[in-house]
Amino acid sequence: MPDELGRPVFGVFGAGNGGQAMAGYLAIKGFKVHLYNRSEPRIQPIKLMGGIEVVGSEMHPDLRGFGELDVVTTDAGEVVERSDILLVVVPANGHRFIAEQIAPHLKDGQIIVLNPGRTFGALEVFQLLKEKEVKADVIVAEAQTFIFASRSINPAQVRIFRVKNSIPVAAIPAYRTIEVVKALRVAFPQFVPEANIFLTSLNNIGAVFHPAITVLNASRIESTHGDFEFYIEGVTPAVASILERIDEERCRVMEGLGIRAMPAREWLYIAYDAVGSSLFEAIHNNRGYYGIKAPPTVEHRYITEDVPMSLVPIASLGKMLEMATDTIESIIRLANIILKRDFWAEGRTVEKLGLAGLTVREIRRLALEGEI
Questions:
Q1: Could you confirm whether 137 is annotated as catalytic?
Q2: Which of 35, 39, 136, 244 ranks highest by number of CB atoms within 10 Å?
C-alpha cells in the first residue's frame, strides 16, 4: 500500500524513545507513518499532539521538526493493515509479543524489521510465524544495532543525538536480504546488507557495552539516579578492560561458527567514525556518546533486555560449541544477583531457539536457507 508518491508506508511498533525517534524521523522526512503501542497512556500525548517533535543535537542541528503521524493506536492489526514495512522498535523481550499480535494480520509482500534484533531476534520471530502457520509471503529481518542514539525528553518529544553511519541488516533466509535493504533505503540509506542473521545477531555490540557498564556502575547509578554520562564517565580504563574481555569471548563464539567477528573497536569506527588505540580511547573519542546519561535505576533494559536477549544466547551458544565465555557468564550471574532474577531461565537459549544439537553446518544452513 505505497503512498501517492509510490513510497512505502511505515508501521512503527513501539512508542518508547526508540520508536518515537523512528516514527518522528520518518514523518519529518515526509513518509506516511502509523504508530502502534500496546498501552494507551504512552501514546496519549502523541495522539493529543498529532505527532512527535524531533529535537536535533550538536551533531545534527538540522534534524528537527514536527512529524505528523497518520495513525496512533493500540490496535496492531490496524497498523499492519495500513503498512508496507513493519519496523519493530521494542525491547527484545517484546519481540515475541509483537510477532503474536501481528501474525494474524500479515499480508503478502510485507517486510518485518527488528530494530535491532539483539541476538537471534529475527530467528525467534521467524520460528514463531512458522509455529502460527502464517501463510503470507513476508520477510523477517533484523538490524545489527539501532540506527539512532536518542532519548525521550518530554511527552511526544524526542532528541536524536546521532544517526549512525552504517547499519547492517540481514533477513532469514539470507537470500532475501537485498529485497529488504532496497525497500528500506528510500528512507534509510544507512542500511547495508549483511551476509546472514548470525552476523547481525552476534555482532550486536550492545551486548558488549550495555549490561557490563550498568552492572559495574550499579552503586553509582543507585546513588546518583543515573546523573552521570553513561559511556564517558561510566567507562573507566578498568571497566574498558572487562568490556574488551567480553568482546573477545563474543568473537570466539563467532569463530566457532566459522564466522568473522567484528571487534567492538572496528564497530565504533564504522558506526560512528570513532577511533582509538584501545577500546577505552575509541569510546571516549565517540562524540555520539557525549550527553547520554546513565539509566536512573539498575532495573533497566540494559540489564532486563540485554542480559537475557543478548548475553544469554551468546553464552548458551558458546557452551554448545565448547567455547569459554567466563566473563560473559560472570556478568549474567551478577545481573541475576542484583535484580534477583534468573536470566538464564528467561533468556534465549539454544534450546528455545531450536539450535540445540545442531551441527555448525546445520546452523549455517538455517541462516542461509531458512531451514535445516
A1: no
A2: 35
